[in-house]
Amino acid sequence: MIEKIKLQLKSEIELKLDVTDVIVETPKKGGADLAMPLFAMAKQLRKSPMDIFNTIKADILSHSEVEDVVFLNGFLNITLKRGKVAKDILNTIYLEEENYGQLPNNNKVVCIDYSSPNIAKSFSVGHLRSTVIGNSLRRIYEKRGYKVFGINHLGDWGTQFGKMIVAYQKWGNKEDIEKDPIDELQKLYVRFHEEEANDPTLEQQGRDAFKKLEDNDPEYIELWRWFREESLKEFMTMYDILNVTFDSYNGEAFYNDKMDRIVEMLENKNLLKVDEGATIVELENMTPALIKRSDGATLYMTRDLAALIYRYENYHFDKMLYVVGNEQRLHFEQLKAITNLMGYNFDIEHVNFGLILLDGKKMSTRGGKTKKLDAVIAQAVEFAKAAILEKNPNLNNQDEVAKAVGVGAIIFNDLKNERHLDVDFNLENMIKFEGQTGPYVQYSSVRIASILKNQTIDLNLVDESFYKLDHYFDIVMLLSQFPQIVDRAIEQNAPSTIARYLLQLSQAFNSFYGKQKVIVEDKGHLNANLLFVKAIRTVINEGLRLIGMTALDEM
């Protein structure tokens, strides 16, 4: 509603004065609820700010939501009818509940490529960022009316599977792998790279094995399928724990029979050149993109072009997001440049992110320096349960709550950070119930749930006059921003926008609760308080859902 008032004022003043770019803002410090800087208008109209103020004052005062207008230091400062405005906002949240901020279908389609782990390797902490950022973006776009297709582009093809097959043939034991598939396969992968340091021929053996895969050698295809099936079992367990879903698990192998068409399309556009045996596309102000190696094997670019055009033809997307690490920036710049040369004008965005660091160091699968995510989650849940039992030893559903807190803590620790930055993974810090943590936000909601328990809100008894007080109205203004916060998360493809908003809202509530008694004798004040805190909980809970966390009633 605040945003609606701003837009109405902006539109009316621009029309009346025949000016552009009128700004109506929310001052960071008290003194006014809304403010309009007059300097730019004064420059456009060659009039003094005071003259402009006098010209538009009556028009602004005519608004039913405006209490008063004053001129101060070149600004037009607006005081709103706080009680009326606040009650309207809180009633809206009360009636719409989790649908507050929801927009209807806008007939636009977004495809999001996220998670995309490599088969035959453990689902590690390193896979976390793409998974939780992509999952959150899916929910955020859906919130604002987009049709979203979530795509898990599994890393189930490429030279690394040639290496894995060579390692299995040399050192693998079928019975050991059947007992513990992923751990055993990963040990083989690590061993391959250790042995490679002393045996340079292993690299070529891996390439040769992959070429046999591409040529559909039955023995190699059977091994590859086995690796893939065992990997998916583990992945699906992790996705269930994280409450992450996808519409497609078509991985790299799915596009094996679709790449010849891409090469043909590039040839027809006269875009291909041969350079030292390799087939490339030359790009302006950019490294050439490799389409085929000298031995004829295809590369990531060929496959990503095939995947992109397949998705466009099947999903008819308006926007394509790739949630992939910072280091792949050039690849996606090349992908965009090639599709432009092919005559497409795809809206492609690389949603880049930094590394997860353990003790300040990068993780590496081939070096064996990584942590399995299921082990880390189990430890987080254990920490969470100990902290919960210390606070509330008689809590029901202890295991369920501990899981929601432990998993949520890991997700929140990732998403509160700007995605392009590296994130240090410190489990003890992220489980704390105070500070900038997921448990702090969850506990703020639980605190409100305990206040509302056994209480009934009567909207007819709400005394809106209390909302005029700063410690109420400041939070109402914050609640009113929620739809715009979701829009900003879309504009920046940044779930951190919502995570940081939740921290701000939780901190504001806890500050309010420290100074204001909620359960009071006066019925008008009581119902005003109940409506107020329920709105806060509604927005916190919906914000938690958007970033992939679970809201709780007790903890």
Task: Describe how the helices and strands are arranged.
Blueprint: H1 2-17, E1 34-37, H2 39-45, H3 49-61, E2 66-72, E3 75-80, H4 82-96, E4 109-113, H5 128-143, E5 147-151, H6 159-171, H7 174-179, H8 181-196, H9 201-214, H10 218-242, H11 259-268, E6 272-275, E7 278-283, E8 286-292, H12 300-315, E9 319-323, H13 329-341, E10 348-351, E11 356-358, E12 361-362, H14 373-391, H15 398-415, E13 423-424, H16 427-430, H17 438-452, H18 470-480, H19 482-492, H20 496-515, H21 523-546
Parallel strand pairs: 4-5, 4-9, 9-10, 11-13
Antiparallel strand pairs: 1-3, 2-3, 6-7, 7-8, 11-12
Helix pairs in contact: 4-18, 4-21, 5-19, 6-8, 6-9, 11-12, 14-15, 17-20, 17-21, 18-20, 18-21, 19-20, 20-21
Word description of this protein:
By secondary structure, the chain is an alpha/beta fold. It is 54% helix and 11% strand. The chain folds into three domains: 79 residues, Arginyl tRNA synthetase N-terminal domain (Gyrase A, domain 2, 2-Layer Sandwich), CATH 3.30.1360; 249 residues, HUPs (Rossmann fold, 3-Layer(aba) Sandwich), CATH 3.40.50.620; 174 residues, Isoleucyl-tRNA Synthetase, Domain 1 (Orthogonal Bundle). The protein contains 21 helices and 13 strands. The strands form four sheets. Strands 5-4-9-10 form a four-stranded parallel β-sheet, with helices on both faces. Strands 1-3-2 form a three-stranded antiparallel β-sheet. Helix 4 packs across helix 21 and helix 14 crosses helix 15. The longest helix is centred in the middle third of the chain and has 25 residues. The chain is globular.
